[in-house]
């Protein structure tokens, strides 16, 4: 009898885990096709199965991060995803970006402190320069903008393009901001 009980528990766990994984997979496929509302629904279903499921939290955070009105909820989902996988560089970079977008410099500093060893050097330098741009008044940011323009744009910039755009907009460089969005937004 005891053996049957453990078999049943194991079976339920396997079935439950596969549901959240399946919903996340379906959501990702829909997201890639541009069906964002449907993807949102599938991620939500995955998270109903397991609120701590890292891949669903990550995808939900990325999906919500595209809306200016959903930045804070996106951060909540991404922080849950990071707890599940602290080595996920994409999540760290997106959290830095969104934290810069909402001007939460203390969170940015904390992320830099905890994860700088995981962030490629060129990305870290680029992000630190963007942070400096956002912290500096426009009349004092010419040196920072020059530095930003001379830096190579890291490959992984698609995870933190929004903070770069805000830096350019803040300094009256709307054309550069628009070009950056066109080039790096998904």
Our measurement of the CA-to-CA distance between the termini, rounded to an integer number of angstroms, reads 54 Å
Strand content: under 5%
Largest sheet descriptor: none
CATH topology of the domain at 1-85: Serine Threonine Protein Phosphatase 5, Tetratricopeptide repeat
Order of helices and strands: HHHHHHHHHH
How many β-strand runs? 0
Q: What class, by secondary structure content? A: mainly alpha
Shape field: globular
Tally the helices.
10
What features would you describe in this structure?
The chain is mainly α and 186 residues long. It has a domain at 1-85: Serine Threonine Protein Phosphatase 5, Tetratricopeptide repeat. It has ten helices and no strands. α7 (121-135) runs antiparallel to α8 (142-150).
Features:
186 residues; mainly alpha; Serine Threonine Protein Phosphatase 5, Tetratricopeptide repeat; 10 helices; 75% helix; globular
Give a topology summary.
Blueprint: H1 2-32, H2 36-49, H3 54-65, H4 71-84, H5 89-101, H6 105-115, H7 121-135, H8 142-150, H9 161-170, H10 174-184
């Amino acid at each position: 009898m005891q053996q049957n009980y453990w078999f049943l528990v194991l079976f339920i766990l396997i079935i439950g885990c596969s549901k959240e994984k399946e919903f996340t997979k379906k959501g990702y496929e829909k997201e890639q096709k541009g069906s964002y509302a449907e993807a949102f629904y599938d991620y939500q279903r995955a998270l109903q199965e397991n609120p701590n499921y890292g891949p669903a939290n990550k995808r939900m955070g990325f999906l919500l991060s595209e809306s200016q009105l959903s930045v804070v909820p996106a951060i909540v989902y991404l922080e849950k995803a990071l707890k599940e996988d602290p080595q996920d560089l994409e999540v760290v970079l997106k959290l830095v970006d969104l934290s810069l977008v909402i001007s939460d410099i203390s969170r940015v500093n904390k992320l830099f402190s905890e994860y700088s060893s995981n962030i490629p050097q060129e990305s870290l330098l680029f992000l630190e320069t963007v942070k400096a741009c956002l912290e500096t008044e426009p009349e004092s940011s010419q040196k920072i903008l020059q530095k930003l323009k001379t830096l190579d744009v890291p490959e992984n910039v698609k995870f933190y393009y929004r903070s770069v755009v805000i830096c350019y907009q803040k300094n009256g460089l709307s054309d550069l901001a628009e070009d950056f969005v066109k080039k790096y937004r998904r």
